[in-house]
Specification:
By secondary structure, this protein is α/β, with parallel strands linked by helices. The chain is built from nine helices and five strands; from the N terminus they run βαβααααββαααβα. The protein has two domains: about 120 residues, Rossmann fold (3-Layer(aba) Sandwich), CATH 3.40.50.300; about 80 residues, no CATH class. A five-stranded parallel beta sheet has the order 2-3-1-4-5, sandwiched between helices. α3 packs antiparallel against α5. The protein is globular. The protein starts with a strand and ends with a helix.
Length: about 200
Amino acid sequence: MKVIGITGGVGSGKSVLLAHVLEKYNCRVILADEVAHKVKEPGQEAYKQLVDLLSTDILKEDGTIHRDKMAAKIFKSESVLEKVNEIIHPAVKNEILRQISQAGREKRTDFLFIEAALLIEGGYLEIVDEMWYIFAREDIRRKRLKENRNYTDEKIDAIMKSQLGEEEFRKKCSIVIDNSESLSLALRQIDEKLGEYL
């Protein structure tokens, strides 16, 4: 089983490409965002620490964390945001490592993909066999984010500024998939690369 990290800036089309590999290959896809939601559930690794840090004010009646209430507390303070990240990021990484280990034992998949915008910053280079950079030109990414997510220019600027630049992605990733043009062209690049491993 080959473990492949999939990263790239917002709007580069990671989700669409991963939907293709899920459909076509014997693989598993772990989305870091979904894992981040999971580790905040009652009984999971980050839950108690978050409630201790932010108080029971962030809970719904059923005891689960209310996302909006939690967000409101976090965005008031840079230091609180840092503390929350210090709880969530390690918990996400632990859960991803657990899933990789489980998939390795089960020996049912050829590929395991991990998708996150912050894979490089999060220290996942030593976890994956390969890091793939999904590249798309900035003008294309902006167009997609406006059309598909109704993002404003201000929101796009803020997100792009918070993410690694193209040069850094290219330096750290061993494979670059260009998703600036047609989807079929990007999918062909993926099929060629995965075909080499099968």
